[in-house]
Design brief:
Layout lengths: L1 E7 L2 E8 L4 E5 L6 H7 L6 H4 L3 E5 L18 H15 L5 E6 L1 H12 L4 E7 L8 H17 L2 H9 L24 H9 L6 H4 L6 E6 L7 H10 L3 E6 L2 H4 L2 H10 L1
Parallel strand pairs: 3-4, 3-5, 5-6, 6-7, 7-8
Antiparallel strand pairs: 1-2, 2-4
Length: 262
């Protein structure tokens, strides 16, 4: 595995590059990072390089080792999708790529798909977040988080997160509620950017003719199965798998590799 950085839209984004073969771009979830995902070990990412794919994992702006600014609009899904498309152009200027995301990463991919479907050959959309009619309450919660960050020290906010309820499916996963990867001073903007975001309108999604594997997990109101089910109905070339145990979630990368190999 090699690590590096690429500057897109004036911001330096850190990435890891592993394996060889057709490119898969991986986009992580809100307040996570490529290192946090690997350390948590919830998904076995080695399954993609082992299956003959070149896995490019990058830290979204403001997350992990990537640069960021305290401007909430730069963390909206529209902005993150523009970053993703720039990352794709950097690594694969002439050919479309496969992509996999979880939560915010899934929203980023879907937003990019609605703008430039020709840049993708197939996608895996893990843990689709709240959207449309269920989005407003989640946005309100993110605003509460942003205000809490502004009022608390990093240690106090970490303690608050440690007391937050964990979806039942992950209650026995060590470290599931870990420290957020964005710097404390960027967290309010990161949360507000997410809270001001929503998935593309359903009519935009129905126009996406790219094969999609949708992976959902249960018992998580921030990532309701209902969103995954609606996406499956909207996307003309999609299939859905629902995980009811954390152990099954560990197979997601292998499922993605099998799907991409078709």
């Amino acid at each position: 595995m090699t690590a590096g950085s690429v500057t897109v839209r004036g911001t330096r984004l850190a990435y890891s590059d592993e394996g060889s073969g057709p490119i898969v771009i991986y986009a992580h979830g809100l307040t996570q990072s490529r290192a946090a995902d690997h350390n948590l070990g919830l998904v076995d990412w080695s399954a993609l390089p082992d299956a003959g794919y070149r896995l490019i994992s990058y830290d979204a702006r403001g997350h992990g080792e990537s640069e960021g600014t305290p401007d909430a609009d730069t963390y909206r899904w529209q902005s993150l999708a523009e970053d993703l498309l720039a990352v794709i152009v950097h690594f694969s200027p002439a050919e479309p790529v496969r992509a996999m995301g979880i939560s915010m990463g899934t929203a980023t991919i879907l937003t990019a798909l609605s703008q430039a479907p020709g840049r993708f050959t197939a996608v895996t959309l893990g843990a689709p977040p709240t959207a449309w009619e269920t989005r407003a309450p989640q946005g309100a919660q993110y605003e509460q988080f942003a205000q809490a960050v502004e009022q608390l020290s990093p240690e106090q906010f970490a303690g608050m997160l440690a007391q937050a309820p964990v979806p039942a499916i992950f209650e026995h996963v060590p470290g599931f509620t870990g420290l957020p990867s964005p710097a404390h001073q960027l967290l309010p903007a990161v949360f507000r950017g997410a809270g001001r975001s929503d998935l593309p309108a359903p009519e935009q999604i129905t126009a996406i003719n790219v094969p999609a594997l949708i992976l959902a997990w249960t018992t998580d109101p921030a990532h309701p199965v209902s969103t995954a089910e609606k996406l499956t109905k909207l996307l003309p070339k999609s299939r859905l798998h629902i995980s009811e145990t954390a152990e099954d979630v560990t197979t997601w990368a292998a499922r993605a590799a099998a799907f991409f190999s078709g």
